[in-house]
Each structure stands twice: as C-alpha cells, then as structure tokens.
Amino acid sequence: MYRNRSRFGVSVKNMTTKHRSLQKTLVVGLTAGLALLWCMATLGTVSIAQHRLNQLLDSALAETAQRLLPLAVVEIINRDTPSVAQHIVSFNQHEERLIYLVRNKAGEVLLQSHTAAPNMFNNTLISGFSSSSTHRFYGAFALQGTVHIEVAEPLSQRLEAIRSIALMLLWPLLIFIFLAFICSWLFIRFSLRHLRHYHNEIEQRNSHDLTPVNLQGLPAEVVIIGESVNRLLLRLQQALEAERSFTANSAHELRTPIATVLAQTQRLQQSLITEKSKAQAQKIAMSLRHLAHISEQLMQLAKAEGGSLLAATPHDLMALLRFIVTSMQHPSSPIKINLQLPANAVFMSTIDQDAFAILIRNLIDNAHKHSDSLAPISVYLSAEGVLRVVNAGPIVAAATLQQLHKRFVRSNWQVQGAGLGLAIVGAIVQGINASMVLNSPATGQTDGFEVIIKFAPTLL
C-alpha cells in the first residue's frame, strides 16, 4: 500500500547535499603526505646506496684483478706450454660471483676460471672499467702489455642487492601508513572536539532558543564564524520577537472590535424585515465569526512560538485529554470523537496544560473540517506517550503533505479555515522537544489522515 509520510522533529537536517568531512580530509591528506615523504626518502636512500654500492663493488673488482694478475703471470711462465689455455679447477663446486679471463696480446686465452665463457667478455683488450648489458668488467695488462686479465661481475647481483635494500625500506611503509592513519585520526578527532560541541550547540537551537552559542575552546579560525553566527542569531531573535509581538498584539486588539461588530450585526439582523436582508446580515455575521476564529488562532500561534510551553511540575496527560475531549463533545457540538485510552494508565509530562489544550483542540478541529461527517474522529494516547488523531477522508497528496505544517497551507481549499491549525500544533511540538508525523493514508487504512505525536515523559 502506498504511503505518504512527512516527519517533523526537534531538528531538521538537509541530506540532499553531502559535504566532505574535514576530519577525513585532514587524516587522508596527512597520511598520504607522510607516505609520499617516506617514498621520496626511500628513493633517495636507494639512489645513494646504489651509488656507494657500485663504488665498493668496482673497487673490489679492481682489487681482485690486481691480485689475480701476478698469480696468473707466474702460472703461465712456469707452464710447459704457455700458449695453451688452461682452466682453473675449483676445489669445491660453488657459484662464482666473479669470473676472469687471461689472454695474450693476440687475444688468445691463456687462463680462465672454471665457469668463465670467452664470449661473455669484451672482444678487445681494454684497461680499466667497462660494462655490457649483463656484466661489469675491469681489465689490466702485465709484462709490457703481453698478458691481459679481465675480471667480470654479473650486473644481476648488483640489481638484486639494490632490490633487497629497497624492499627492506618499503615494507615498513605498510605498518607506518596504518599507524599514521590511526594516530592522525585520533589526534584530529581530539583536536576537533570543541568544534563538534559547537555543532551540537547549534543543532539544539530553534525558534524558541536563539541565545548566543558558547565559543569557548574553538580554534581561532572558527571563532570568527562563531561570532558571525551569534550576531545572526541575535538579529533573528529580534525579528522573531517583533513578528510574534505584532501578531499577538494585532490579534488581541482585533478581538474587541470584532466582538462589538458581531453583536451589532446580530442586533441588526433581528431588526430587519425582509428575508434577503436577513440573509445578507447572516453572511456578515459568519464572516465576522471566521475573522474572530483567525484572530484567536493567531494569538495561539504567537503563544506556541513565543515559548512558556513547559510547566514547573508534571501532570497526567491522559486525565487532561479526557477532560478536553469531554468538553468538546457537548450535545450541541457536531464533532464526534472516539477516545481510546489504556485502562488505569497514567502518563506524566511537563507540557503546559493550556498549550496541551490548544494542541488537542486544533488537531480535533482540523480533523473535523477535513473528515467524513458520518465517521467519528479517533483519538488515541498510549501509556508510552504516543498520541494519534485519525480522521476519515481522501488521501492527501505527498507534495501537500510535506507543506501542511506551514502557515496558511490547506489540503482542501474548499474547506473553511485559515490553514493555521497544524502550524500551531507544529510550533508546540517543536517547543516541547516532541516529534510529529503526518500520514496519509492513515496507518492500517486505505484512506484518511493521521497525526502522530510522541511526547517525552519528562521535559525539564
């Protein structure tokens, strides 16, 4: 079943626009910045380590060549056939980190390590350092350039060493990011505690409480905003007080003239002779009664928006509701009310009795104007303080339902009234920190209109 629903409570939040969290932005920004700095420091460290490692390994490569060259010369000279190539046999099988090749001036191999392959070395005899795509070389001559030694080191060893250094520096970054995120979140959340308190203070403000917000503890950048908000609250309070004062004074000043004109109109109606004149006088009297009713509602609205809606001591709302409904169901009244209360139940609340009476009378009056004349108005008050006023009638459109709590808004313009009843109820509900829900169709029905108000047991 389709249901239109409108909810009004202590605070109204606009969820149409989702704003970015300052705390989240700061935490993510700080964590990303620290991680970036760590990566840049790691990159710099790896670059320096690679440079120093190359220097050390080049020095070891040259030192190895210079130490091996005299030994190789002695081995070649003492050999029976010096021109025949010879492999140096290793004592134990192992992986050679350095390999070497000894050649004569013509490029013929005289001596080589057991895993050395001649095609891995330079084709020309070079003195000093050189490199290929796979190896780093160092060459040196002896015996007036007739013997040449070249020692080679695979570049993969250097790359593996640099890779190990980089990994050793980068893997702690995962733990660092996690710790930085948690610490930043906790620190920023602690630092913004006064800002959250300020937010809660503003959330609690409504038309009944426009006092300045406490700015103690706020950061200097936010205090300026807080002072501007307090000045705005002051101007708003002055404007609302002026509006309420004008509404209440105008309605009060109109009561006596309206009552006087209505009495004179009734006397004039009795003195008229023709039926046409009497009918015209009757219309004038009805208009004056309507004007008097609007004046009364304006005074109620000014009271509801002006505060003083809480009593000093709590009282039983169920007994008060029973009394109000009984007073509205006198024999001459066209209003039919079906009151349902829990047996032997008591609900204590500190809402002002006059404010509660204004609330109930406006709800019942609104239900009577817009309901089927043959169906009674149902009024329920549970032991938990939930008030329900239900009337039969057509379904109210969703767009209209969302606007019914505003002044001078009516769901049916053919019904006599000013559209102030639910506005008065909404102002009282907001002033006592209760909540109000409008449903159409009513709960468990296919049509009708329902007002649900949830009272708090203690409002002081």
Describe this entry's structure for a reader.
The protein has helices spanning 22-77, 155-170, 172-191, 193-203, 220-271, 275-306, 317-328, 353-370, 398-401, 421-431; strands spanning 4-8, 86-88, 99-104, 109-113, 128-131, 135-142, 147-154, 310-316, 337-340, 348-351, 377-381, 386-391, 435-440, 449-454. The chain is an alpha+beta fold and 460 residues long. The chain folds into three domains: 23-172, no CATH class; 206-307, Orthogonal Bundle (Helix Hairpins), CATH 1.10.287; 309-460, Histidine kinase-like ATPase, C-terminal domain (Heat Shock Protein 90). It has a six-stranded mixed sheet, covered by helices on one side. Strands 2-4-3-7-6-5 form a six-stranded mixed sheet. The protein has a two-stranded antiparallel ribbon with strand order 8-10. The protein starts with a strand and ends in a 6-residue tail after the last strand.
**Which structural class should the secondary elements be placed in?**
alpha+beta
How many DSSP-defined strands?
Answer: 14
The helix count comes to 10
| CATH C-level class of the largest domain | Alpha Beta
- Mean of pLDDT: 81
Write the CATH fold name of the largest domain: Heat Shock Protein 90
Please state the overall shape, judged from the principal axes of the Cα atoms: rod-shaped
Taken in chain order, the helices and strands follow as EHEEEEEEHHHHHEHEEHEEHHEE
For the record, the count of structural domains works out to 3
Largest sheet: 6 strands, mixed
Reported CATH architecture of the largest domain: 2-Layer Sandwich
Radius of gyration: 47 Å
Multimeric state:
single chain
Quote the beta fraction.
Answer: 15-25%
Poorly predicted regions are 1-16
CATH fourth-tier homologous superfamily of the largest domain: Histidine kinase-like ATPase, C-terminal domain
